[in-house]
Write the structure tokens for this entry.
Amino acid sequence: MMVSFIQSNYMGFGSGVVVPEYGISLQNRGAGFSSDPKSANVLAPGKRPFHSIIPAFLTQNGQPQMSFGVMGGDMQPQGHVQTVVPMLDYQQQPQAACDAPRWKVNRDFTLDLENRFDTDVTQQLKDRGHQLKSIYDPYMDFGAGQFIWRLSESPDHGYVAASDSRRDGQAPGF
């Protein structure tokens, strides 16, 4: 009863190609791969090039526990950690973990922080030498997640769903 799915056109409108008669725009997620054999992101046998489409599924004792995903390019793996750890280690509800302020490590190792971050934590990071940037518009910078958590092994107990307020989306039940 759960599906993990990441919708992404990448780079705005994707490839710019729309399937005639259907109106579906094609993605261009392969733009980050390389044909250069010297590149770490070369597509070749035995290679594992970086890619950020990572819909996820969590199991417990071999049974489905949660389908989830945080979309947002390089933020996806960081967003997965920042949302799943509070749920598993601190029993935080999915919506609370989804709504919590996020941080992002940039390619130059600076840190972006949502402006809702606790000022004491921000100061401690500065005191430790981190270069910080406070971001006031979280729409594109901190990803957006959706989560479906199974309450128990009994189908009668149902599910808890969460949807990120940073972007459009919803957690409907039927």
